[in-house]
Amino acid sequence: MNVVSSMIGSGISFLSLEYLAFLLAAALVRYLCPERARTAVLLAFSWLFYAAWNPVCLLFLIFTTVTTYFTGRYVRRRSVRAALFLCIAANLGVLFFCKYWGMFFPGIFEQRLLPVGISFYTLQALGYVVDCWREGRTAKASAQASSGQNSSVRDEGKKSGADGPRFLTYALFVSFFPGILSGPIERGRNMLPQFEKPCNFSFDNLRNGLLIMTWGYFLKMVLADRIAIVVNQVYANPEGVPGTLVVLAVLLYSVQIYCDFAGYSAIAIGSARVLGFRVMQNFTAPYLSASVAEFWRHWHISLSTWFRDYLYIPLGGNRRGTGRKYLNILIVFAVSGLWHGAGFTFLFWGFLHGIYQVAGYLQKPIRDALAQRLHIDRTRGSHRALQILVTFLLVSFAWIFFRADSFSQAVQIIRCMKGAEIWSLTDGSLIALGLDTMNWVLLAAGLVFLFVRDLCVRRGISLRVQLQKQGIWLRWLLYIGAVLLILVCGIWGPGYDASTFIYSQF
Asked: Could you give the angle at the alpha carbon of 379 between the alpha carbons of 329 and 293, nearest 5°?
């Protein structure tokens, strides 16, 4: 009881022992309680987890749950567009007031509450409502097409599965604690059947879940938080360090945000697996992409596919001509930028990615002609390696605006990148950024391992599966070694807040 009381108001960080105890308790109660009570039990744990950050925020979560659930039931039966729009407007209105009001109306209602995870669970719930409306529209069209059938058959078809999931099941879908703070942004068609299906304890789920979580802790605590020391120092005073180190910090931030968010996602996915659920992957080696468009097929997959399914395609996608396609791309990425943060730097970051993609489409005929005239073999590994490098540099440049507190700071960072001199890496300036030689060596080794792992991902090789093929003694030696590596080499200590994930701010 004292443990729970200490959690209220402070939140349960993924990087705390309290979270591991909370997850263990949730798993034990889930598997030991009667099957019919498991949904209610997990929902109670999820609401407790969320209320621990701020009990008042739970009211916002319940509002979204109730409005989207009953709207989903209604539009699935009647396919009323007005009801769909009203639900979307109500929930986006709450999101706008909590998150974006100060951006457009500074000085008015400054004391506003920003519920944690609202950007994530709002999209997840609205995606469900849109799916319900599409199901209702499809069913209505099918009924009209088969109007000659026996009416009793049609009535039976309307009743079958027309109401969708039970309220408790849907509430768990919206508030499932492993993903409530920062995703992945799931789809009802993936999670709802899992919540409704009986599930017994599986040692494979426990083992794989813990391994996935361990990988997440490694990414976050060994790599991301170590890189953060360097990046934070450079961004705080870019004029006080050589241009080479500013460039290095910009490139390292690309790795930091990847390890930070992919680490969070791995902990969330692993936690769900421990509880017996399979959540969608969020990252598949994005920095091995040969174009910005390919990058977004591998980066924050749950968000990019959400915007594709629920914004880009409804806007017309690529079905209304080339010009409209380019406009839709720019709109989607501008909205994506705003979704990430209530600031014009985020808006510009998203718009810049849209420009990258449009420019890529426009330049394709030129690139094809040059490759043909210069007899460039575009199937060679060296050509793809060059494409990967260019893509990484473009994405890293865009991250400057994402990381900067303002446009002026972003411009300052870009200006300080000029005059980069390679010998700044060997004159002791690196050590002055907060990491000693041993930490730089450890970071370099970790990045090499990350690169090799990502290569395996792109080639369809699962290191986790390969590990299971080894002998039991070697497996357990590697398990224990991985945990010790995180405990010994992870960033700890007073004065450093390792508990904050970058994407938890959105």
From this structure: 15
pLDDT beyond 80 at 146: no
Cα distance between residue 504 and residue 198, in whole Å: 32
| Residue 417 covered by a domain | no
Longest alpha-carbon distance in the chain: 85
Mean pLDDT of 414-426: 80
Task: Flag whether 409 is in a domain.
Answer: no
From CA 16, how far away is CA 374, in angstroms rounded? 57
Amino acid type, 78: R
| Exposure string over 236-251, b if 16+ CB within 10 A, otherwise e | eebeebbbbbbbbbbb
In the DSSP assignment, the letter for residue 165 is S
The DSSP secondary-structure symbol of 431 reads G
pLDDT at 151 over 90: no
Structure confidence at residue 504 (pLDDT)? 58
346-367 pLDDT, tens digit per residue, is 999 999 999 999 999 999 889 8
In a domain, 375, yes or no: yes
The Cα–Cα gap between 249 and 500 comes to 20
